[in-house]
Design a protein that fits this description.
The protein is an alpha/beta fold. The chain has 19 helices and 18 strands. It has 3 domains: 126 residues, Fumarate Reductase Iron-sulfur Protein, Chain B, domain 2 (Orthogonal Bundle); 161 residues, FAD/NAD(P)-binding domain (3-Layer(bba) Sandwich), CATH 3.50.50.60; 159 residues, FAD/NAD(P)-binding domain, CATH 3.50.50.60.
C-alpha cells in the first residue's frame, strides 16, 4: 500500500477531461473524450485524500456512492476493489461516468475554495478499466424465489430495478416498446455523449444473469395490463415521463417545428443504421443546410445543438427564457448545493449561439412552413417573465426544435386500465416507503413517478423500487 501524502491535496491541481479538437469531433458521432493516463488517475484520486468531512457522497450523490473510499482504493492502486465498490451502489457507473451532471463535484470540499476533485472522470476510468480487465462479470442469483416480476420500460430506472430483482432471485421480464433496450439512454442521448455499445455490453451482462427482454412490445396495446397482472406477481411501471412540454403560440402548427426528443431519436436511429453523413441527410428530421432555432437552454437543447452542427446546419441559435446565470459562485445556491451557475457544455464549445431572457411570441410561416421565430426579451418579476417593450426581433429559422422538458408520463391506455393514482403534476403516485402505487402489487420508479429528472436519480429510484418489490414478494 502506498503512503498517502496528505499535502498533495494542496499541491495537485484539478485536471479537466481532454477532448478531441472541435474540428475533429464534428466529423463524427462517436465519443470524443480521451482517457487520463495512469499517473493522472493516481494524482487526481490523491486530491481526495485529505478531506476531513466529505459531503460528496451524501449531500451530492443521490446514490450515496462512497466516493472518498473509492478514490482511496484508486490511490492505493486497488482498482478492482474500487470497481467492485462502485458497483455496490450503482448498476451502471459507465453511464453515470459519462452523462451524470456530477452533483457530487458541486458538493466536493475542494469546491469551497478551488476546483473539485474530478470525480466523474475517475468513475469513468475505474469502470472502463473494469470492463477492459474482465472484472465486470454476470452475477446470477444462487437460488430462485419462483416469483415473477414484469418491468415496463427499459430506461435507467427499469434496468436498474430489473438487475437488482434478478439478483434477488426473482424471474424478471422487461417489456420495451422500442426495438432495443435503453430507453432515453439509447434514443435520446447522442452517440457522441454515449455510444450505444456501452449500453449493449451491460445488457449482455443482464441477459447472462437471467433478465429476459421482450422488445417491440407496447404494453397496454400489444399486451394488456390485465394479462400482465394475471401472469406476474408484481409489476413495475418505469416508462419515463415522455409527455413533452409544448409552447402555445401563434404558428405552432407550421411544418418544420419538432419536439427535441423526436429529432434526437431520428438522429440516433440514423447513426445506428448508417454511419455516413450522406445517408443520414435522408432522415425525416435533419438540420443539414438549415437555420436552426432551439427553444430551451438545458442539456437536451445542448444535445440538439451538437447534433445539428454535425448534420451541417447553417446556423444554430439556442434560446432560454430564464436569465443568464452567473459565472462562478452564485450566493443563491451556496456549497454544498447544486450551484445555479453558467455551464458551458462540449456542444456549446463547438458552435452556435446562446441567448438568455428570451421569450417566443410567435412562429412566422410561409406556405405552411416555418421561416422564423418572433421573440422578445423578458425580465423576471415575482417569479414571472415580463416582456420588455421595444425588444421584439425576428430570428430566421426553417427548423425549430422544442427542448422544453417533459410534464409527466403519457396518460395512455396502460395507466388508465391499471387505474393507478396520479399526483397533482400528473405523475404516478407511490408510497414513499414501499414504492407501491394505490394498486396492490403495482409499483413505479424513475421519471414516471418523479417527473423528468436526472439519470442518477432514476437509477437510485429503480434500486429502491426493487427493494420495495422484494419486500412485497
Amino acid at each position: 500500500m502506498k503512503k498517502v501524502l496528505y499535502s498533495r491535496v494542496f499541491e495537485t491541481p484539478r485536471i479537466e477531461p481532454v477532448y478531441q479538437s472541435v474540428s475533429e469531433r464534428l466529423q463524427h458521432y462517436n465519443e470524443f473524450r480521451l482517457s487520463f493516463s495512469s499517473t493522472e488517475v493516481e494524482d487526481q484520486s490523491g486530491r481526495c485524500m485529505s478531506c476531513g468531512i466529505p459531503f460528496c457522497h451524501n449531500a451530492g450523490c443521490p446514490l450515496g456512492n462512497p466516493i472518498p473510499e473509492t478514490n482511496s482504493l484508486v490511490y492505493e492502486d486497488r482498482m478492482q476493489d474500487a470497481c467492485d465498490l462502485l458497483h455496490a451502489y450503482c448498476n451502471f457507473p459507465e453511464i453515470t461516468g459519462r452523462i451524470c451532471p456530477a452533483l457530487c463535484e458541486c458538493s466536493c470540499v475542494h469546491n469551497i475554495y478551488g476546483e473539485p476533485v474530478a470525480i466523474r472522470q475517475l468513475e469513468f476510468e475505474i469502470v472502463e478499466r473494469g470492463w477492459h480487465e474482465g472484472w465486470i462479470k454476470p452475477r446470477p442469483a444462487t437460488t430462485s424465489t419462483g416469483k415473477r416480476v414484469a418491468v415496463i420500460g427499459s430506461g435507467p430506472a427499469g434496468l436498474a430495478a430489473a438487475q437488482q430483482l434478478t439478483r434477488f432471485g426473482h424471474n424478471v421480464v422487461v417489456y420495451e416498446k422500442s426495438d432495443a433496450p435503453g430507453g432515453i439512454m439509447r434514443y435520446g442521448i447522442p452517440d457522441f455523449k454515449l455510444e450505444k455499445h456501452v449500453i449493449d455490453r451491460r445488457i449482455g451482462q443482464m441477459v447472462s444473469e437471467g433478465v429476459r427482454f421482450e422488445l417491440g412490445v407496447n404494453v397496454g396495446e400489444d399486451v394488456s395490463a390485465k394479462y400482465l397482472k394475471s401472469k406476474f406477481d408484481a409489476l413495475l411501471l418505469a416508462g419515463g415521463a415522455m409527455e413533452p412540454r409544448d409552447v402555445n403560440v401563434q404558428g405552432r402548427e407550421l411544418s418544420g417545428i419538432y419536439f427535441a426528443m423526436d429529432y434526437l431519436t431520428a438522429s440516433n436511429i440514423a447513426v445506428k443504421s448508417a454511419r455516413s453523413d450522406a445517408e443520414m441527410k435522408d432522415t425525416s428530421i435533419n438540420a443539414n443546410g438549415k437555420k436552426v432555432v432551439i427553444l430551451g437552454g438545458g442539456d437536451t437543447g445542448a444535445d440538439c445543438l451538437g447534433v445539428a452542427l454535425r448534420q451541417g446546419a447553417v446556423s444554430v441559435v439556442q434560446l432560454e427564457i430564464m436569465p443568464k446565470p452567473p459565472e462562478g459562485y452564485n450566493p443563491a445556491t451556496p456549497w454544498p448545493r447544486w450551484s445555479q451557475i453558467l455551464r458551458t457544455g462540449t456542444s456549446h464549445k463547438e458552435g452556435g449561439e446562446r441567448r438568455w431572457g428570451i421569450s417566443t411570441k410567435r412562429f412566422i410561416g410561409e406556405g405552411g412552413k416555418v421561416i422564423g421565430v418572433e421573440t422578445t426579451e423578458v425580465q423576471w418579476q415575482d417569479g414571472k417573465p415580463v416582456e420588455k417593450k421595444g425588444t421584439e426581433s425576428n430570428i430566421e429559422a426553417d427548423l425549430v426544435l422544442l427542448a422544453l422538458g417533459f410534464v409527466h408520463p403519457k396518460h395512455d391506455a396502460l395507466l388508465g386500465t391499471l387505474g393507478v393514482g396520479l399526483d397533482a403534476r400528473g405523475n404516478v403516485k407511490i408510497d414513499p416507503v414501499t414504492k407501491m402505487t394505490n394498486i396492490n402489487g403495482i409499483f413505479a420508479a424513475g421519471d414516471m413517478q418523479s417527473g423528468a429528472s436526472l439519470i442518477v436519480r432514476a437509477i437510485n429510484s429503480g434500486r429502491e423500487a426493487a427493494i420495495g418489490i422484494d419486500n412485497f414478494l
